[in-house]
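Bug #77: duplicate submission created two jobs. Keeping one. Sequence:
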Amino acid sequence: MEKKTKVIAFANNKGGSGKTTSCANIGYSLSVLGRKVLLLDGDMQLNLSLSFFPEDQVLEMAMGGKNLYQAIKKQEELTDYIVPTAYDNLDLIPSSTLMSGIEYELFTRWQREFILKRALKEIKESGQYDYILLDAPPTLGGWVMNILCASDYVVMPVEASPWGLFGVANMFDFLQDVHQLNAELKLLGIAVTKADGRKNYVRQTIEALKQTEGVHVFDQVIRIDSEVEWAQDDSKPILVHRKNSRSAGEYMELAKEIERDVSGNR
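Kept job's structure:
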């Protein structure tokens, strides 16, 4: 039976939701589970790339000819833009600071909402990866529309804070618009992140999200852990930086939960 690659976008229009951190650590967790994973850094801030490579190397890739911006600008297939990471089963397509101009590049293009989908077509159909994880910038525009039109599923990280729910309704409205172009896209679930168990609003945030009709909230909550920041500073996934940390276990469990849900075993 031919293996089917599953494309999952990590998206939220609110910054600081833990979106990139979730994408990076869930991607690494899936690779540890033996899945072949390709990560795509879709944000001009380069944070997903910085999660796996030192800053000088990330900047070199960002200013060179082999990054996502150049591929989209030229409307090229993405196979030649894949960079292996230091870890088994885990590859990356790096971003560029020039992604700040991606909306302009898309504006006059034919079927501009599907440029990324076309660029990923050969990789996806080859079946060489079990998962392609796309890290979207915290915006709602033509580029995020591209990312979601190229995806099978979307995971929405939401920060467990008084401001965490701000903009969630806008994200839901945007997903409805995307469904006009990609009817198969499924909101896999909301991942609650940066939770501080000492605060009452954590429980209130989770309850409010669970009351949203038709929206699944993942059981595994990601709590605040300073080790995550140290791991990011070291350009390593949390499971590499400190394997036995609380966050390492939480991201691994969330990765397993996502895989179960994608497989229809919720």
